[in-house]
Amino acid sequence: MDKKVGLPSVKQPPKIRVRPLQLAIVFFAILYSLANFLLWPKSRLETLPINAQAIVAQCRALYLTPGPPDDFQSRMHSDRFVKGTKPTLIRNATIWTGLDDGNEVIQGDIFLDKGLVKKVGTFDLRSYRGVEVLDAAGAWVSPGIVDMHSHLGVDSAPELNGASDTNSLKGLALPWLRSLDGLNTHDEAYRLSISGGVTTANVLPGSADAIGGQAFVIKLRPTAERSSSAMLLEPPFSLNGTHVDAFQRPRWRQMKHACGENPSSVYAGTRMDTQWAFRQAYNTARIIKEKQDAYCSKALAGQWTGLGDFPEDLQWEALVDVLRGRVKVHNHCYEDVDIDGMVRLTNEFKFSIAAFHHAHEAYMVPDLIKKAYGHPPAVAMFATSARYKREAYRGSEFAPRILADNGLDVSDHPVLNSRHLIYEAQQAHYFGLPANLALASVTSTPARVMGQDHRIGRIIEGFDADIIVWDSHPLALGAAPKQVFIDGIAQLEKPYTSVKPKSAQHAPTTPNFDKEIAEAIKYEGLPPLEPEKAKSDVVVFRNVGSIFLKNPATRLVDEVFMSASADGVVVVEKGQIVCSGTQTACLTALSRSEALHLNLEGGSIFPGLISYGSPLGLTHIASEPSTGDGSVFDPLRSQVPPIIDGTAIKAADGLLFGTRDALLGYRSGVTSAITSPDGGFLMGLSSVFSTVAANKLADGAVIQELAALHVAVSLSSRVSVSTQIATLRGLLLGEGKDDISRRFGDVVAGKIPLVVHADSADVIASLLLLKKEVEAAAGTPIRLTLAGATEAHLLAKEIGQAGVGVIVHQRPFPTTWEERRILPGPPLTQTSAIAALVAHNVTVGISIEEPWSARNTRFDLAWVMHHIRSTAGLESNGALGRAEVLALASSNLETLLGVEESNTDLVATRGGVDFDGKVVAIISPLSESVNLI
Ligand SMILES: *[C@@H]1O[C@H](CO)[C@@H](O)[C@H](O)[C@H]1NC(C)=O
Ligand SMILES: *[C@@H]1O[C@H](CO)[C@@H](O)[C@H](O)[C@H]1NC(C)=O
Ligand SMILES: *[C@@H]1O[C@H](CO)[C@@H](O)[C@H](O)[C@H]1NC(C)=O
């Protein structure tokens, strides 16, 4: 797609690719010079420089377009082949090759040798010896995942001050910087991302600068050299200063650009400043390029008089190369205003952008994007991560579908853990992106956009042996690699064994979102989200596949109905179930003439889900202080104003209703949320609220004003852990003041739970001891819940024995030191943290981190469900039924967070296995109605 760019201006000689022809031209250029020398008067004699040949070669090289050598496809081994790697035969695979626009699927074998895919399909291997055989038994196989937007190695896990190499703050335009210079070879995330199938990543500088520097493409596997450079895929020849072969086509380079909020805010400037920084930098590069072109047109014409030295500048050479069309520009750019500015810039300076990244508003302006110079940039974006800042406020989950023609990729590791890049593709697919394009979006599309599609992104004979063997269709929620090959080397020590149901072996059927898609465009990303009340008092749900209800006595979720033939019926009158089960059981109710009938097509009815862990309900736009409640005073770090000192802050006082994240949560089955005040050691008191209520005075808006008392103990606090624990001990032993003392008294008396946000196993151990100590002093048991609790699995037994509950993230990541000992789950470990805790009888809930992900709670549950099911029978403990999985985000959270009045809403989904169908209605006993979505 980039073949058109990079041609020299009309004055330049024609573009040459074939080596003999190039040789011939250089030969004739020299001959021409020689002729000048011989035929012209003596004065010319001094002017032919001694290095004329080198200059001519250098000038010729300027106009070569990047790409592989012409004989690349006939290579016999990969330049990344590791000697001693055994050939591997993957037998009996269902191969998604990426060919035919992502529609080709081959049933057959794949042979990997010399770091390459040697054969695909049906073939005879009799001539080979010592072949490793992996029987895929029909499993799906795809190319390795290509991550076009990564900060792997430069923004390493765990985060430490000694390793923050994402951004330089030495100026707005720094095209001379190279991400490679910060590429840490010990980032914990390489191994994790590989376990999610990521084999190649484009490591970009961050977005603090307009021009942050050059990006480098790496393969993620460990290397024998253990060096940063050894990870590179096709680095530019000029990288280490070795002599550049003037006849060889250069390799594609990559560069980061950013517009909008980030560069503006970092430099306390505005969009105008950023845009000027771009223009100033590009103008500098343009002047150098024009000098070079003028110089070279003379040199190539043999006009040596007064020519002098070749004009160049090491600082600007990379940006000059952008103007020559030899660099893939990756442009972090969200809003229409910024996209417009960049499109203008490309036309002013005549360069192309490979992709707009993040680009949350791109779906509103496809025609504008098509006006970019050269070719329309691809659009790389998140699937559902949005609204975290103004630039993302109008983001739509339907953007990938709307932009489908423009290609897309979906990541920003570690902003989103790239281990789960395939999950982004799954969500894009759920929201309407066709399966072939969804798979391409994380494989062949990014490979093409990065100029690497001659070797990665598809399964073709002669391509790099980067292959994933999946345990289900890769677009099925919870898909996990059984094995990942990079350069033909198996990356998982042991292939992962799991048994997924047949239903997971094909691309999921996705709901119809045509109406929502039209509204996203019509309302520029802000469609109304309020549900509509069913007009009839009686609603009949037909073709119900399963029904789950909370048992008021046990507070557990029970599966009360399950039918493989999906012939269940639920009749609701004024928001109450009057009859449920088989048709025959509900005959009288079914005949109600005024009833509204809804066909669930095998879907489920289950208790309204609860969201916990993010500031949902306390903010509209997380990074905009003026749109939210803000942070509480931290008594350990700053002086609390005397007027408020001694008061425990209540989230209920700061609740905001009608936030888009809450409403999107509601539309996805999350009917209530529990939120605590944000920040500090002593966070305050959490509240339970409805995600659909219009304001605090509406019926049922605040479900429970006070739920639990929350504190945080962290190694990342600037106050010592010992100080934090000592403070907590003092507060529990009655040393607090006023209201705070009263609240801790309630905790000690067992009236409300104490929720401690803690990740480190060492902190958790201290908390378990503190609990004992306080209980011994007070004589009553404390209800302690650990939130975050990333390392809790290390103490699962002790936590279980102490009767302490735990709320964890479904997909852990070692963001900080105190979270580094995660239990990663499949395929790296057979068991997950949730399963390990459940095995010790710990009551477990799941939490989210950011408000936008409340809407994905159903997916989180389905994910747990798929994992638990696939390993059931393989491990003796930790097996959860469907009802128990639902409880993780409903009744368990209520127990763990001190909710007394259980939420009675019920969610009805249409289609889909488990909980991943589309929510079509919420049954609300409180409002005596059914809300239609
Ligand atoms: C491929 O695997 C499937 C599923 O295990 C099996 O039914 C089929 O017989 C296998 N085919 C061959 C050629 O081994
Ligand atoms: C310099 O880079 C070239 C091209 O990538 C490579 O072949 C060569 O080995 C490198 N030299 C050193 C000293 O790293
Ligand atoms: C968990 O609880 C069950 C039922 O009460 C009991 O049989 C089992 O031993 C317990 N497991 C552990 C590890 O405590």
Automatic annotation (TrEMBL):
The keyword Transit peptide does not apply. GO terms for molecular function: allantoinase activity. It holds the Pfam family Amidohydro_1. InterPro entries: Amidohydro-rel, DHOase/Allantoinase_Hydrolase, Metal-dep_hydrolase_composite, Metal_Hydrolase. One of its GO terms (cellular component) is cytoplasm. One of its GO terms (biological process) is purine nucleobase catabolic process. Keywords: Membrane, Transmembrane, Transmembrane helix. Residues 430-487 form the Amidohydrolase-related domain. The chain crosses the membrane at residues 21-40. PANTHER family: ALLANTOINASE (PTHR43668), AMIDOHYDROLASE 3 DOMAIN-CONTAINING PROTEIN (PTHR43668:SF5). This is Carbohydrate esterase family 9 protein.
